[in-house]
Amino acid sequence: MTVPNSPPRPSTLPSAAWIFLPSILSGALALYVFFGGHNEDWFVITNAAAQYLLPAALWAGITNFGATLGAFSMLGPVLLWRPRWVASAVLAAPAAILYAQGLKAIFAEPRPAAVLGVDAITVIGLPLRTNSFPSGHTTTAFVLAGVFTFCATAGERRWVGWVALALAALVGFSRLAVGAHWPLDVFAGAAGGWLCAALGTWWADRWRFWEHARGLRITAVLLFILALALAIEDLGYPEGMWSQYLLVACGLLGAGWAWLHPRTVSKAT
Fold this sequence. Notes:
This protein has 269 residues and is mainly alpha-helical. Helix content is 70%, strand content 0%. It has 11 helices and no strands. Helix 3 packs across helix 8. 46% of the residues are buried.
C-alpha cells in the first residue's frame, strides 16, 4: 500500500496588512520628512523634548536594546520557549545588516552632531558624525518587533504586534533623544527592518532547524558567543551600562540554559 506524502506545512505569516502596512507607513513618513524639508526641524524638537521625558541614563539604556549584539542577547531567554522566533530573527539578520550597512556606505550622510554642532543639541554618549542613513539600531528593533508579530499565534498577534511596535518605536525615538540620528534615518530603518523580519520568518518556516535539539543547541551557542562579545563591546553609551549588563546576563543565562535543556518542537511556536 502506498503511503501518501504528508502535505507541506503552510507558511504561518500573518495577513498582508500586518506585513506591509507598518513598512508603508514608515516609508511614507520618511518621504514626507525628506521632501517636506522637516528633517532638521523635527530632530531639534524631538531631541529637546526627549530630555524632559526621561533622564539620560534611561535613554542610553533604551538605545542599547537596538544594538545588534544587545538585541541578540535579549533573544537568549526567548530561545527557551519560542525557538521559531529566534530562528526567524537570526535568518533576518543578513538582510537587515546588508540593508542598513549597505545604505550607510552608499549615502554616507552626516549625523546631527556634524551638521548642527555638539553644543547646539543634546548628545548622550559619544558624539557620532558620519554614516547616519538609515538608523541601524531602529532597523534591528523593527526586525525583532516584526519577528515577534509575525511568529505570534493568531490569538496573540494583536496584542503582541502593538506592544512590539511600541517598544521598537521607543528604541527609534531614543536615537533622536541621544542625538545620533535624524527622523529620516529612523523612519527608513523602521521600514527596512520590518520587511527583513518578514523575510526571516518566511525562511524559518522553510528551514526548520529550530525544531530539533541539534539546531537549538547550535543557535544557543551562537547567542552565547554574541552575549560574550557584548560583554566586551564598547557601545558608546557609558550612561547606559546598566542595560548592557542586563542584556549580557540575559544572553548568557538564556542561551546557556537552552543549550543544556533544548526543547524540541513538532509544530511552529
